[in-house]
Amino acid sequence: MALAPLPVAAALVSDALAARVAGWQRMIDPLMPALLLLVLMVVAWALVQARRRAHQLAAAGEALAAPFGWRRGLGLGALALGFALLAAAIGGHDTHQRLLQWDAAVVAAAQRGVSPATQQALRWVSDLGDVLVLTPLVLAVFGGLLLRRQRVLALGWLLAVLVNSLAVRVLKGAIGRERPAGAAELVTSGASFPSGHAAGALLVYGLLLWIVLPLVARRRWRAVLAVAGGVLIGAIVVSRVLLRVHFVSDVVGGLLLAGFTLLLATGLLRPWRPGDGVEWERPWPR
Predict the structure, then answer these.
(1) Spatial contact of 90 and 177, defined as CB atoms under 8 Å apart
(2) Rounded to two decimals, what is the model's pTM?
(3) CA distance between the termini of the chain
(4) Which of 33, 38, 104, 254 could form a disulfide with 195 if both were Cys (CB 3.0 to 4.6 A apart)?
(5) Maximal CA-CA distance, the chain
(6) How far apart, in whole angstroms, are the C-alpha atoms of residue 207 and residue 205?
(7) Among 8-22, 149-163, 236-250, 260-274, whose mean pLDDT is lowest?
C-alpha cells in the first residue's frame, strides 16, 4: 500500500543538528563494540565495589533490600528470550519477509486518519526520545544524585544508560536491518533494529521514575506520575511507527532490550534506592 509523503513539520530538535549528531554517531560506530566492552568492565568493577560497601553497611547493622528474587530472574530470562527470538526472525529470510508483511499491515492500518496536525505532534513527541533531549536529562539527574551524595545510584544511573545506548548501536550494526521506505523523509541514525528511541525512552524515563517515585509522599501523585511516564514512553514508541522511521518489530525489540537493562539495573541498584532503606542525607560510607 502506497503511503502519502509526510508533511514538512517543525520539530523540537532541528533537522540540521540531528543530522550533524547522526553523522558523528556513524563515524564512531566502528568503535561501539570496544566502548561497550569497556563500559561493561566498569560495570563489573562498580558491582564489586558496591558489594563491598553493602557488606560494610551490613556489618554496621544497616539492613539493605535484597537485589534479586526469582520473579526478577524469570522476567530477565523472558525478555532476553523474546529479544533473541525476534532478532533471529529478522535474521532469517522467510521469517523476515513474513514479519515485514505484518509490520506493513499494522503501519497501513495505523496511518488511516492521521492528519498533518497529528504528524506535527508526532514529530514533537518523537523528539522527546531523541539523544539530544535525553542526554541533558541524563546528565542533570546524574549531577543531582551526586549533589545528594547518592554516588552509587548516580554511577548506576549513568552506567545503565551507557550500556543501553551502546548496546543499541552495536546491535543495529550487527543486524543491519534496513529502515522503512518513509524513513528517508526524516533524519535517522543507524539501521532500523532495534529502535534507539524506544529503548532510550523506556530506560531513561523508566529508571528516572523508579528513582523518584519513592520520594513522593502521596500515593495519588505517585500513581499520576507513573501513568504519565507510561503514557509518555508509549507515545514516543507509537510515534516512531506512525512517522514511518521504524517497523513495529523494531520498537518491540527496543522495548525488550531496554526492559532487560531496566529490570537488571533496578535489581542491582535496589539496595541503594531512597525509600528502600537508604536516606538521601546518608553520606558514602568511609
Answers:
(1) yes
(2) 0.86
(3) 65
(4) 254
(5) 67
(6) 6
(7) 8-22
Q: Which residue is it, cell 499494522?
A: 106
Q: Which of the 8 DSSP states describes residue 2?
A: -
CA dist., res. 103 & res. 106, Å (int): 5
Q: What is the DSSP letter of 150?
A: -
What would the pLDDT profile of 109-165 be if each residue is shown by its tens digit?
A: 777 767 777 777 888 898 899 888 999 999 999 999 999 888 889 999 999 999 999
Tell me phi and psi for residue 250, to 5 degrees: -65, -45
Asked if 74 and 184 count as a contact pair (C-beta separation under 8 A), the reply is: no
| Enclosing H/E stretch for 23 | helix 15-28
Calculate Rg over the CA atoms of the chain: 20
Taking residue 144's Cβ as centre, other Cβ atoms within 10 Å add up to: 13
The whole-angstrom separation of Cα 199 and Cα 257 is 7
The per-residue pLDDT for 218 is: 84
Q: What is the 3-state secondary structure (H, E, C) of 38-83?
A: HHHHHHHHHHHHHHHHHHHHHHCCCCCCCCCCHHHHHHHHHHHHHH
Gap between the Cα atoms of 185 and 187, Å rounded: 7
pLDDT at 243 (0 to 100): 86
What does residue 242 show for φ and ψ, rounded to 5 degrees?
-70, -25
Lowest mean pLDDT among 29-38, 42-51, 138-147, 204-213: 42-51
Closest-CA residue to 2 (of 108, 102, 100, 99): 108
| 197-228: burial string, b at 16+ Cβ within 10 Å, e else | bbbbbbbbbbbbbbbbbeeeeeeeebeeeeee
Contact between 108 and 1 (Cβ < 8 Å): yes
CA angle 197-251-30, nearest 5°?
A: 60
- For 229-233, 249-253, 280-284, which range has the lowest pLDDT when averaged over its residues? 280-284
